[in-house]
Amino acid sequence: MTDAPVKLSVADLTKRFGSLEVLQNITTEIRNGEFISIVGPSGCGKTTFLRIIGGLEQASGGEAHLDGRRIEGPGADRGFVFQQDNLLPWRDILANTEIGPEINGALSPEQRRNTLRLLKLVGLEGFEHYYPRQLSGGMRQRVNLARALAVDPALLLMDEPFSALDAQTREIMQTELLRVWEEGRKTVLFVTHQIDEAVYLSYRIFVFARRPGRINEIIDVDLPRPRPLSIKRTPRFVEYVDHIWKLIEEDVRVSVLEEHAG
């Protein structure tokens, strides 16, 4: 991906909440079409970083640029997939997926065809007129992904989207996400606590150190694509997981002790 143009650039990004420094001088570049995961201990600022890039939070210092334009607030050039799907219960799946284009005033027959294509892409063809209460957790997150893609974002931001799913469903959703990503090659920033999830999905992994959050190391994941789930049992995959765990183990230990002390 080194020959791809820079999609997102971040320079000296800092965030404070009062006297608490959450992020410290984060500087990095992400190239077009990259799938980047962010891992680190609880409280290291992973979600705060994502929210700043999404324009949902203001940085205290530094700046970020998407396609050369400074990020100063939310925009249709970014799609957000949260931990909770937040689907509107009174709207069917098709109507939930079209919320973004509807807000942007872009509903049209062409957009409707695109929405139906996206629902087919995420495996929900035939469920367009079901309601959220009729779907499983995994299916709801598929709607969530289709909804984020419906605005055709330049950057897809995903904040632990599979954390509420059971282990088996989570693994299937990982394979489905890669399949959808291969289709459009969107640039993705993906926050997760699961190291194996990060290794399986990513081109590169940003390993954050504990608060104040900063990039401790960037891992290039040199595994072939497409990636079957069986790749998780290969020695090279296990080496990546072990290496990342050793980077964050002490920080995680301290974070857990602090939580219990609180």
Give the termini distance in whole angstroms.
Answer: 43 Å
Strand order of the largest sheet: 6-7-8-3-9-10
Taking the sheet with the most strands, its summary is: 6 strands, mixed
CATH topology tier name of one domain: Rossmann fold
Number of helices: 8
Low-pLDDT parts are: none
Order of helices and strands: EEEHEEEHHHHEHEHEEH
**What is the helical fraction, as a range of percent?**
25-40%
Q: Structural class, judged by helices and strands?
A: alpha/beta
Mean pLDDT: 90
Secondary structure tally: strands: 10
CATH class of one domain: Alpha Beta
CATH superfamily of one domain: P-loop containing nucleotide triphosphate hydrolases
Label the overall shape. Answer: globular
Question: What is the CATH architecture term of one domain?
Answer: 3-Layer(aba) Sandwich
C-alpha Rg (nearest Å): 18 Å
Key terms:
37% helix; globular; four-stranded antiparallel β-sheet; single chain; Rossmann fold; six-stranded mixed β-sheet; alpha/beta; 8 helices; 262 residues
What is the compact description of this entry?
The protein has 8 helices and 10 strands.
Per-chain topology:
Elements: E1 6-17, E2 20-31, E3 35-39, H1 46-53, E4 61-66, E5 69-70, E6 78-81, H2 93-97, H3 99-103, H4 109-121, H5 137-149, E7 155-159, H6 167-184, E8 187-191, H7 195-201, E9 204-209, E10 214-220, H8 235-261
Helix pairs in contact: 4-5, 7-8
